[in-house]
Amino acid sequence: MSAGSTSPKRSFRSSLKSFFHRRSHNTTKQQSGPDLQVPCLLDLQNSNEHGPPSSKVSPHATERNQNTASNALEGTLRALHQSTEIFPPLQAAVGALISGLEAVPAAEEHRRSYDNLLTELQTLHSVIDKYRDNIEITGMSDSTANIILSIETEAKLLRAKRDKGHMARIFEANNDQDDLLQCYRRIEMLSRQLQTNVGLGTWSVAYEQLMNTRLGTLSPALLAGYNSTLAAEINRRLCTKNTRVAVLDALDSWSKNHSGANVYWMSGMAGTGKTTIATTLSNTLSKRKQLGATFFCTRTSPECHSIDRVVPTIAYQFARYSRPFQSVLSRVLDTDPDIGTREIPLQFERLLREPLLEVKRSIPNNVVIIIDALDECSDHGGVKTLLSVLFQHAPNLPVKFFITSRPEPEIQDEILLHRSGEREVFYLHDIEQAVVQADIELYLREELVFISPAEYQIKQLVQLAGNLFIYAATAVRYIRPGKKLASPHARLDLVLSARSNSKKQYAELDVLYSTVLDTALDERVLESIEIEYARRVLWTSICAREPIAIETLAEMTQMDSEQVLIVLQSFLSVLYLSGGGSRVSVFHASFPDFMFDHERSRKYFCDQNICGQQLALRCFSIMKDQLRFNICNLMSSFWLDTSLAGIEKRVQNFISPSL
């Protein structure tokens, strides 16, 4: 080392000579909210905008200031490290920050950035000390966890700078200083966000109960979450490993791009894998604490295809994600408990836009809200309204929105009205077929490994699937042996031998569905009455448009439950039985599309108007047979249900599931 060179630690100390000399002049103010005490973070955020004018100091004074700065820095960080023992993830992040800061050189002109950072770290220490008891009660929200992970990421960048060789640091000095300045500013911002999340995220048990009561007035669609019990019932799954890599990478980049469009629309024809991709993205973001809320629309559940439930459900889930947002939303619900029943634009304004803007500085800048299969909502006019208000406000909101749907005119036209800078669009069905087929091939090899298919059979299946993942998934379900005795090899041969000469988009899928039904309704094997029973079960299952209990299906088809279960074994390629075998639903929306289209399904066509009328008549018949006055044998009609002990058991005993 030359005589004129300066050691990294000496350079660092020199740059911090006045870093802490104003500590005694900084104070932490408090303000009272209507329900709880929280730090007044706006004052803290602005307390360091202007520092005192610089002054010349003697070499001896400079040396003393360097030592003071170094000691103060180390003392503050170690105190913060100790106080965060109730937050193990944050303690780890602060530990990484300590090791990264200890030997990083910095230029003199960056003093103010370090000064601001120290103030934020001191304030964070005070906030955590003040609320440490309540933190242990309320725990850590995903929003807080997201901020902590981001601090740890920045700390790792600092440590990487520290671990560079000395000569490398000399050659990259200018770039390093710019990078360090940006890094410190990001840590400063994250510390500010963390203060708000901790201060507004801690309250008493009584307040927690009040908050939950208020949130309950939103009547959220709990089954609309990506990982709800309904997701398990309808067999929603993740992408097979190493498939959809390019698509998922693009979505990952978008979610991390702070300057990109706030709305991303993925469009795709039925069966192209939109929901599986959305589920995989949700799972990935959830692990990284970036997932603010999800609403997975589906025709199989009434609450999950009601467009007026989308905004209240997103607000409810986001309140679980972010405590500051929850606090503001609670005030909204206190003043207007029925806001969740208002028209969609007013819902969006009061439940999302206003609370998000009020706590904008506390929200991590990489949070994503996901709405899947928007085309499956029943009110197309409501869908258009939601998209209109979303695009009106999304550019100014501190969150991103990922939306999937089929390219329905009312959705596509509304989205494409807006400038390209306001939204990103990805047409899933336009991906080069070779890329999609490579993913389908990986999926088929994994799912059919139990029968060791020949190479030519895999290749032929891939060609038949085209770019439709649903073809591959349905073929696998048809080939895979269930409870019914059937040779998987014979079924594979049957699928491969069924071909269509049509050039239409869903021609091969139609042939596959017809093959499944040919097997299930084989006139050479079944008696005519058995075929009639099978049709009843199939048509009722798809016309119900929601998961239906086996007992109810038996009542509706005038069969017994055992008969229904036997019949269902033939349809497990297109219908889904829940884990316990108690409820049945349609495996994919493309199957009802096929069944309700006479040109596609031909002899298996289901006229939904006639079927709907028959179901309605059967419902009236069941009510006529089973309903009676005082059905639960109550002692008096003047008593409220809530005051009767064992009322749930009475309902279970006297009212059948079908009724």
Automatic annotation (TrEMBL):
Asked if the keyword Kinase belongs to this entry, the reply reads no
Record key words, sorted: Repeat
Q: Which SUPFAM superfamilies match?
A: P-loop containing nucleoside triphosphate hydrolases
Q: Mind telling me what this protein is named?
A: NACHT domain-containing protein
Q: Where is the NACHT domain?
A: 262-407
**Region Disordered: which residues?**
1-64
Q: Where does the record place Low complexity bias?
A: 7-18
In terms of Pfam families, this protein maps to: NPHP3_N
